[in-house]
Amino acid sequence: MSKITFIGAGSTVFAKNVLGDCMFVPALAGFEFALFDINEQRLKDSENMLNNLKQNYNSNVTIKAYGDRKEALRGAKYVINAIQVGGYKPSTVIDFEIPKKYGLRQTIADTIGIGGIFRSLRTIPVMLDFAKDMEEVCPDALFLNYTNPMATLTGAMLRYTNIKTVGLCHSVQICTEHLFRDLGMDHEGIEERIAGINHMAWLLEVKRDGKDLYPEIKRRAKEKQQGKHDDMVRYELLDKFGYYVTESSEHNAEYHPYFIKSKYPELIDRFNIPLDEYPRRCVEQIERWETMREDMVNNSQLTHTRSHEYGSRIIEAMETNIPFKFGGNVLNTGRLISNLPEKAVIEVPCVVDRSGIMPTYIGDLPEQLAALNRTNINTQLLTIEAAITGKKETLYQAAMLDPHTAAELSMDDIISMCDDLIEAHGGWLPQFSKEVVAVPVTSRSLSNDK
Fold this sequence. Notes:
This protein is α/β, with parallel strands linked by helices. It has helices spanning 12-23, 40-56, 69-73, 87-101, 113-137, 150-160, 171-182, 214-224, 232-241, 249-252, 266-270, 277-297, 311-320, 367-389, 392-400, 403-408, 411-425; strands at residues 3-7, 32-36, 62-66, 78-81, 83-84, 142-145, 164-167, 191-197, 200-208, 211-212, 244-245, 324-331, 345-353, 356-359, 442-443. The strands form four sheets. The protein has a six-stranded parallel sheet with strand order 3-2-1-4-6-7, sandwiched between helices. Strands 8, 9, 10 and 11 form a four-stranded antiparallel sheet that branches. A three-stranded antiparallel sheet has the order 12-13-14. A hairpin with a 2-residue loop joins β13 (345-353) and β14. The relative contact order is 0.17.
């Protein structure tokens, strides 16, 4: 029996999306959906939910929850990763509150920035443990990573393990649809070309019937900027750098040195930037889960509509040999984006079929876009190195090269802040701590990128 293993399966809503989608793929009939999570209650919730879907749609897949990770992985053909190491408490709270003491404010803190760096440091060792198990019990499996920070985690897997890995994010497939809806434009029949890095990929071309739609997009965006709205940072980047970026304004506000600045506090209101947005979402989602759990977990009439997630479609293409095109996160091997570093993880159009995942060649990005990407790549590459080596000086360098952190703090304060974060995280960062403990892993029960 072929097997899809979901690590972090206690993320019940996300498991419903991805594995619910897989139930609608005829080529996956007879597959086992293997579920693993360290939270036994959440694991049981997801098992019950998926069995309800299975019965409602007469699916002949097998749903099986495992208490042993290696057994869940054994013989898997595909592995889906959706974990969160450290959870909202204590780790996310630490990621926000300690930098705040230094005057460094954040919005999401899951990609780069000081929060993204420390999320990477917590998660990369756990991912390498996954890879070690996979190399033993399912060495040929494809690892589909949905966990952030996307570039660092995918990069660590691709550079330091033998596991075939691709990183998947929501940003690319919803980018132009949301943009056009926001600007009151018709999205039907457009042709687009998107490439860059995760959360900072660029809408390089957007056309309909060969006509460039960017002039009209820029005209409407400039008009919209005259009033308050939820996408002001991206429209400002579009105005100043000439291209629209894939990920949301609340994310991009902290990827650049221009928007969250203690010397210019008026920018927060001007660009409608939601500081501390991710902790706020975490609290709301925890409260919302308590009310929606019964309806989802024990609902014998539960239904599902195939989502926009790439996961099931990639697996379907590999099983059927019918090609599928998607935006994937891969190494920049051979300089697919020729003015970005080869060690970088880039987000580019990919085609997948039975022969595997084939990323497309992009060539040079417009130089200003490549320059913005490189400011984030610098921190990503040093963060991976710090996670692998456990060298504090490399961690300090990663933080000092982060655009937002460097724009706000002195080098001495950055080093002091990193030391405070290491101490606060304690055993969650075994590579930096004298206190080496077993670090538990939670499912990504909270959405960490939307």
